[in-house]
Write a structure and sequence with these properties.
Elements lengths: L12 E14 L2 E7 L4 E7 H4 L1 H9 L5 E10 L6 E12 L13 H6 L1 H4 L3 H23 L3 E2 L5 E2 L11 E4 L2 E5 L4 H11 L1 E9 L12 E10 L3 H22 L1 H6 L5 H8 L3 E4 H10 L12 H11 L3 E4 L12 E4 L2 E4 L1 E6 L4 E8 L4 H10 L8 H8 L5 E7 H9 L20
Parallel strand pairs: 3-5, 6-10, 12-13
Antiparallel strand pairs: 1-2, 1-4, 2-3, 4-5, 7-9, 8-9, 10-11, 11-18, 13-16, 14-15, 16-17, 17-18
The structure holds 4-amino-1,4-dioxobutan-2-aminium adenosine-5'-monophosphate (4AD) and magnesium ion.
């Protein structure tokens, strides 16, 4: 029996195993706040009804002690919550004084004690939404005929040449921790057509922001015979599916987080916006932001456009110079552009997806590899995707934590992963 199932047992006698996260008592009645992982409940103990032995146990209970509670299920008079009128208490373990008390702690303290902080309501809600986003993405791709294709974490080459790598000693040579499984997924589609991976990737960026992790989870999708337009269409359907599922299945969690879902609800029904990188920059300039036209989108620009339009925006065709070597490119008015898009989430969500059509010409991509000074030998296997039966193909990568941060609107991305790794945090 779990707290989540209580609604099916109204008026019945139940047994719940859990932890006491708070206690309030007034004279002969005590209110125990109990959590069991599946949810939270209030257990009401009346001294007279429960008897002296049980009452003494209740008095001994400290915060985070583990208990078994027996009693009858009743409904909260006003809220959609269930309570237990306790008839019996069994103490499993009495916890010593708990470091995380009711008083306000700074975030550093909470994350120094992340193993304990995980037991609080906010992390409970955020990490359950994380679970839902993971499920929604996985289910979506299974339904769309994709094959899960796991890519290696230890890689001999760099994928995203515009970001920093972690390297490590690998027997007698050096290896890198994956920044993205994409290059391997590109080989994967030559065997399976449409593939996705989902796993941790690592970025040694010196970015100390509330949008950056050093270890994050990424889902890379790659599709043969997809051009950039089909690629964006797929991303839009996937994001809508995630939002729809979270709104429908994570009501309790969103309520705990006090998330105003007006804008999220709207997203499910409306078409996402599209603008070119040039248009996006022009709009930012008109709106008074300091703008560098041939640079990547800045944090301020992404946040500005997201807040203004209140819808996800595909920003397309970045200057090729600021993007990765594998992207398909074209020239217009003397500038080389990539056939790519970053998907910007509203409500300060920033970039949640990066994707592009890939360069499918063997000669063109080989030239780019040489131009950027990469050792051709290391990319020989990758070049085979263009050598033997090259096809138009596209793909994208979604950052799991960026997405969760947007959906939950927690301030810092470290809230969205059980044990965060950032520039300044590697413990516990
Ligand atoms: O835009 P990125 O760098 O794209 C790639 O790695 C491609 N190879 C993906 C692909 O086409 N298969 O990263 C993809 C997403 C970003 O949009 C962002 O959501 C997230 O990964 N991301 C980060 N999230 C948190 N912290 C960081 N340091 C991140 N770097 C990227
Ligand atoms: Mg990107």
């Amino acid at each position: 029996m779990t707290i989540a199932e209580l609604k099916n047992y109204l008026g019945k006698e139940v047994t719940i195993q859990g932890w006491m996260y708070n206690k309030r008592s007034s004279g002969k009645i005590a209110f125990l706040q109990i959590r069991d992982g599946s949810g939270f409940l209030q257990a009401i103990v009346e001294q007279e009804k429960a008897g002296e032995i049980n009452w003494e146990k209740v008095e001994k209970l400290t915060i985070e002690s583990s208990v078994i509670i027996k009693g009858t299920v009743t409904k909260h008079p006003k809220k959609e919550e269930y309570e237990i009128q306790v008839s019996e208490v069994e103490i499993l373990n009495i916890a010593p004084e708990y470091p995380i008390s009711k008083k306000e702690h700074g975030p550093e303290f909470l994350f120094d004690n992340r193993d304990l902080y995980l037991r609080s309501k906010t992390p409970w809600a955020v990490l359950r939404i994380r679970n839902q986003v993971f499920l929604s993405i996985t289910n979506f791709f299974a339904e769309q005929g994709f094959i899960r294709f796991d890519t290696p974490i230890l890689q001999p080459t760099s994928c995203e040449d515009t970001t920093q790598l972690f390297d490590l000693k690998y027997y007698d040579t050096m290896m890198y921790l994956s920044q993205s499984g994409q290059l391997y997924s590109e080989a994967g589609i030559m065997g399976f057509g449409k593939v996705y991976d989902f796993g941790p990737v690592f970025r040694a960026e010196k970015s100390k922001t509330r949008h950056h992790l050093s270890e994050l989870w990424m889902m890379d999708a790659e599709m043969a015979f997809f051009d950039q337009k089909m690629n964006m269409d797929l991303q839009e359907r996937m994001v809508k599916r995630i939002v729809k599922d979270v709104l429908r299945k994570c009501k309790v969690e969103l309520e705990i987080l006090e998330r105003d879902t007006t804008i999220l609800q709207n997203i499910v029904e409306k078409s996402f916006l599209h603008m070119t990188h040039k248009q996006a920059k022009e709009e930012c300039k008109t709106d008074g932001l300091e703008t560098e036209f041939l640079a990547d989108m800045s944090t301020e620009e992404e946040i500005h456009l997201g807040n203004k339009h209140k819808l996800p925006i595909f920003i397309e065709d970045y200057p090729f110079e600021v993007k990765a070597f594998y992207m398909k490119k074209y020239e217009k008015d003397g500038v080389v552009y990539a056939k790519n898009s970053d998907l910007i989430a509203p409500e300060e969500g920033r970039e949640i997806i990066g994707g592009s059509q890939r360069e499918d010409s063997y000669e063109v991509i080989l030239e780019e590899i040489k131009k950027r000074g990469y050792p051709k030998d290391d990319y020989e296997w990758y070049l085979n995707t263009r050598k033997y039966g090259s096809v138009i193909h596209s793909g994208f990568g979604i950052g799991l934590e960026r997405t969760i941060r947007w959906l939950t609107r927690v301030h810092h991305i470290r809230e969205t992963i059980p044990f965060p790794r950032t520039l300044t945090r590697s413990k516990p």
